[in-house]
Amino acid sequence: MLTKDTIAAVATPLGEGGLAVIRISGPAALAVAAAVFRPAGRGAAPPTEAPSHTVHYGHIVREGQRLDEVLLTVLRAPGTFTREDTAEISCHGGVLVTRMVLAAVLAAGARLAEPGEFTQRAFLNGRLDLTQAEAVAGLIHARTELAVDAAHEQLAGKLAGRIRAVRDALMNALAHIEAHIDFPDEDIAPDTQAALLDRLDRAGDLMRELLRTAREGQILRRGLRAAIVGRPNAGKSSLLNQLLGRERAIVSPVAGTTRDTVEETANIRGIPVVFVDTAGLRETADAVEAEGVKRSRAALESAELILHVLDQSTPLGPDEAALADELAGRPRLMVLNKHDLEARLQLPVGWEGIPVSCATGAGIEQLKDAIERLVWSGAIAGEPHQLTVNARHAEALRRAESAVGRARDTLATGESLELVAFELRAGVRAVGEIVGDTATDDLLDSIFRQFCLGK
Ligand code: GDP
């Protein structure tokens, strides 16, 4: 085991709740627990003597004073998340009670954990590879069922398995090449060379296949940025409310960077769709601050999906035709709103829209279907994959792929085997970073810092 001290943190969210869990991990975890925990009942075993995976009822005591009535779970290494001895105290979820119990635990010799430090220990102790550690964070941050599925697949080690297969293929080729470098008199036999080229091609194919999932992975993790546009009163706000609908519970407000706009995320058929603010778009430039218009423009330009809302109870305005022209060729759906009212809108030839009524909710499910189809149609992304790479994996894969490509070309021309080996080593290193075999401390820190406290 690489880590020596014992860490502790509140593992449940801050604030009042029925219960809070304080997690303690490290070689002294059970001794720390024993110092603060008094089991109820005469003759009950202290945590240091309790068998693994057992729960004990008692009190947290500090300087003779009872702080709370708790349940203590004793988990012994290596069958724990961190692979270290672990104690979990379930106490009452009051803010003050929780803080007092944590303070008692810290006073008994534990150190307050850094964000992500429990998961970091799980990684350092070989319980998880780096992609699995990232999946733990992915699971916590997942906003839709598809994202949860993808995180579970990654947590199960499926991505790591593919990466290791690539790495093994490259190492195997490298071993062959290095053997030939050691015996420079022997030329590489043509069939050996062909077999090696074949192996490198296959590794390249595997990497490109994984790289193709990056876009889908980004959508599942970060969400798809969408804009709702249309003239005032077309029903844009009503549509947004309809799309957020009962899924409002999963809405996560994200503070905007330039002002405090709130972006809202709707769960549309498992796709987190982040609606960006384009409120200032159609106001005339003299009526509004130019800055607001500029921001709305930028939001529209960066949107990956556009919902153009038309009010079909009024005739088409000239500005609406211009907007439609401007949006042509981008991933866009026309929404013909106010279907419950009499139709007065003549759709120009070639325009196609989805009739909805934000007043009654009619057509909203069809609109969601259309969004789902558009997203996975290839216009925005390919099919939804359960196994996807994130931006960090993609960057490393691209480096590895180009190094392996160069190794392959050099090998094909029969030039310097040293150069082939050099490139292959670079490829092996890059692929190794993904699972954490060759990751630097800086990389590890930046990954684990994204976790919440107590995880
Ligand atoms: P925005 O300015 O584009 O955001 O439009 P709003 O969402 O604020 O809607 C403008 C007005 O149209 C409001 O009074 C809504 O109640 C009304 N409205 C929106 N959608 C419908 C609809 O489908 N049917 C009817 N009859 N009225 C609607």
Ligand catalogue: guanosine-5'-diphosphate
- The level of helicity is 40-55%
The N- and C-terminal alpha carbons lie at a distance of 19 Å
Mean pLDDT across every amino acid position: 88
Strand proportion, as a percent range, falls in: 15-25%
Total beta strands: 14
Order of helices and strands: EEHEEEEHEHHHHHHEHEEEHEHEEHHHH
Low-pLDDT sequence parts: 246-261
Sheet/helix structural class: alpha/beta
Shape call: flat
Largest sheet: 7 strands, mixed
Secondary-structure map:
Blueprint: E1 7-10, E2 19-25, H1 29-36, E3 37-39, E4 54-62, E5 65-75, E6 86-92, H2 95-107, E7 111-112, H3 117-124, H4 130-141, H5 145-155, H6 158-182, H7 190-211, H8 214-222, E8 224-229, H9 236-244, E9 254-255, E10 262-268, E11 271-276, H10 290-302, E12 305-311, H11 318-327, E13 332-337, E14 353-355, H12 364-375, H13 391-412, H14 417-435, H15 441-448
Parallel strand pairs: 1-7, 8-11, 8-12, 12-13, 13-14
Antiparallel strand pairs: 1-2, 2-6, 3-4, 4-5, 5-6, 9-10, 10-11
Helix pairs in contact: 3-4, 4-5, 6-7, 6-14, 7-13, 13-14
